[in-house]
Amino acid sequence: MSKIYLYNTLTRQKEIFKPIKKGVVGLYTCGPTVYNFAHIGNLRTYLFEDFLKRTLEYNDYRVKHIMNVTDVGHLTGDMDMGEDKMEAGAKREGKTAWEIADFYEAAFKKDLAALNIASPSQYCRVTDNIPEQIALIAQLEKKGFTYKTSDGIYFDTSKIKNYNKLSHLPLATLKEGARVEKNPEKKNPTDFALWKFSSAGAKRQMEWKSPWGIGFPGWHIECSAISLKYLNKNLDIHCGGADHINIHHTNEIAQSEAATGKKFFNYWMHGAFLNIPGGKKMAKSADNFLTINNALTRKDLSPLVYRFAACQVHYRKPMEYSEAGLKQAQQGLQKLWEQAAALGAKIGKVDSDFKSKFLEAINNDLNLPKALAVLAAVFKSKLKLEDKLATILDFDKVLGLDLRAKRLEFQTINKVEEYPAAIAQKAGLRDEARRQKDWAQADKLRLEIEAAGYLVEDTGNGSTLKKK
Ligand code: AMP
Ligand code: ZN
């Protein structure tokens, strides 16, 4: 097995990755809060995690991947104040919190599929794991790490050593940050809610009985309870966006290690932000967010264009969104698909020299920009066409750019003559609709192709295009 180097936020350096159990990796990725659509900033983080998982699998590890789905308890303020995001979403849309969760969880899964992001081994809804969270809080209470205020049960951060071991921030700075939203009953500004009480007289849609009173879990406890339950023997890698370092992941570590007396995860990895021009982070709360639909699909761009764009920026470097950038990525990806189509039908052998260069790039803390350069070098090389094809299809296990399927699509439509890319794309979509037996969509696309002056003819194996 080759060595894999990963940057660990805990130690602020690249380390050689070593799993707890040979051949298996436990991977925990913080999932979505399902009160709204995911934006392409969130999805950048899920893409980074997908590249990580595929890299581990490419290195022959079996990956046990757990993702939580936050369907309760994530408050609109990060400091345990404000409204529950789910209940706020329900009010906004005139639905129940449960309906909101179902709808946006399904939308999230659709987004992941559109980006070729593999599903986790298991999704864990927070509301399906309430007893585990209550048990963990009870354990913390028994060990003397909690106290009660008028609105909930809190974790006392002054009771542990190294509260800042992940953030590396001076404790004074952490306290300063925490002071933005004041809660006068907290003993220390960095203390956080483990359990929140339902307000007297105001019945919540989502609430549970607990030893401390009716209420709902605080946001951080879910990820500790779920990861300890499902990855108990494989606490290898825990990931999220960089905004989770100072509060969410810091608090997860504090409460998990206090409860178990053992080290929580060995490797903590964080993806840098997707920013809008000017350097501001794309955020749901900032009204500057774009979904896959309005950034890509609606503009006739394949969602994979965004995946390709994400490969071009290292995951620890900020990425800037721009429409022009996506257009450029579209041209690059289209060219890649055309080049793959031009390699013919025969699949030969994976070239071992190029494979080791590719491995070296991805195993060096997921250097995908370099991996793309290796891919480009394969196309330019003197390898036999069939071996080039085998090699790029092998790389695509990690890149996930659909080279296998797209190459066939492009081969069918490039057989007869040259046509504008938009027509070729429509013919490809029509082939796909026919494969799915969506005859209405196939007919609609045929009419559009004919209106643009081309004829499409079906063969036993896809379709061909002709000028009228
Ligand atoms: P949320 O649904 O808000 O809990 O966020 C889901 C994931 O997206 C988390 O891992 C966040 O850290 C991450 N995230 C949020 N905003 C951005 C952004 N602009 N760029 C990259 N990742 C982000
Ligand atoms: Zn989390």
What does this structure look like?
By secondary structure, the chain is of the alpha/beta class. It has helices at 40-58, 85-93, 97-114, 130-142, 171-178, 221-230, 245-260, 292-295, 304-311, 323-341, 352-362, 368-380, 385-399, 403-413, 421-435, 439-451; strands at 5-8, 13-16, 24-29, 62-69, 122-125, 146-149, 152-155, 192-197, 215-217, 237-241, 267-271, 274-276, 280-281, 319-320, 454-459, 462-467. Among the domains are: 5-271, HUPs (Rossmann fold, 3-Layer(aba) Sandwich), CATH 3.40.50; 414-468, no CATH class. It has a 5-stranded parallel β-sheet, sandwiched between helices. Helix 4 crosses helix 7, helix 14 packs across helix 15 and helix 15 packs antiparallel against helix 16. Zinc ion is lined by residues 30, 223, 248.
In short:
Helices cover 43% and strands 15% of the residues. With 468 residues, the chain is α/β, with parallel strands linked by helices.
